[in-house]
Sequence to fold (423 residues):
Amino acid sequence: MVKVRLILVSFLALLFCSCERDGLDTTLSVGPFGKESRQVLLLYEAGFNSLSADIHRNINVLKEGYLPGKGRNDDVVLVFSHLTLHDRRVYDQETAPALFRLYSKNGEACSDTLKVWPVGTPVANKETMTEVFNWVRESFPAAGYGAVLSSHATGWLPEDYYSNPKRYEGRDRGSSVSWSPRLKSFGQEYYGNGTRIQEIELNDLAAAIPYKLDYILFDCCLMGTVEVAWELRNVCSYVAFSPCEIPSAGLDFERLTEHLLKPDIPDVKAVCEDYYAAYETDSIYGATITLVDCARLDPLAAVCRDLFDRYRSGIRNLSGKNVQVYDRLHGGYHVFFDLKDMLREAGASDADLASLQAALDEAIVYEAHTARFIDVRLTRVCGLATYLPAYPNYRRDIYHGTEFLDGFYKENVAWNQATMLVE
Fold:
């Protein structure tokens, strides 16, 4: 089922392009855990926010697809969710997060509640996430584990920066959203009648997962950055995410388990292909999706470190106005730029760009993008976003970072420690 909201605004279909590595085995290498053969899929749904109704709908759609049985050797589908009361935007009535198992019995979808956390337990929280993942492994020993993460947040940015930059900059940089169909990103929940926001920052997210996963799929916005991939390189074998935002309907949840649990080896690429197919001709949204092999990121980091050093002057004096962006602008500042296009505009030679592309081709298993996402034209896309540092006259320009973000990036983003994008 293609879950795209049909809005008859335009009769023009989006042009599209996609690419993948040719002739390469992209299956996962799932090894046995003791004598176990089953797989566990955990959906971690931080939905005490404006996406609550959408996440509830996604869970119901999940029940319409393939579900394993409940036998000792059957695969396991688990959902940890925290949603608003009656799926409405009522944030002053807190609810209890719960973990439940979905399975099939006599052809019917069934749900068993396994554990309920106290009302007020923060879900966008390192300690809670670690507790949930540990409980899952202890309760369901398996050959492999994978996760789908759904909620609100924004790549590597500091908590709440995207929606409230004044908190950090001391001045209002404006919103980076030009209009507001409901969209997804990871980790944001509302409290106190929506006046307080809690998110989990990237390094805490990586530290929160206590064992290596076969894959992580981000059903959320703006996570498709090289910084996110690098932070998670030791946390999962494969990571799938979107450099742009993701519509609230998200992934194709009806076919999700069919791809991740039915085969002997989880087919993460098929999940990405389904998502892209749902939006490749949509007249409103469009789509970007990238699947990364985390084991192949070291060569990319080595190439980038060399190029960042040799083209440092070009990068530092680049306003970014002509660089491919992924976030949307309306009176605010862009933050997410295309990694390859940044270096191209900074003056990298054809030979150096070819070296970068070779490293990208090794790391990126699958990449697809439409000609635009809403009002962002996608013309020079490598599949990974990155940060563009501030430069001397940055206050007069909106296509770059800031002095504050430079400092945060330098101190908190592991990709910078590996590549020295910001000195």
Observations:
- Confidence is low (pLDDT under 50) at residues 1-33.
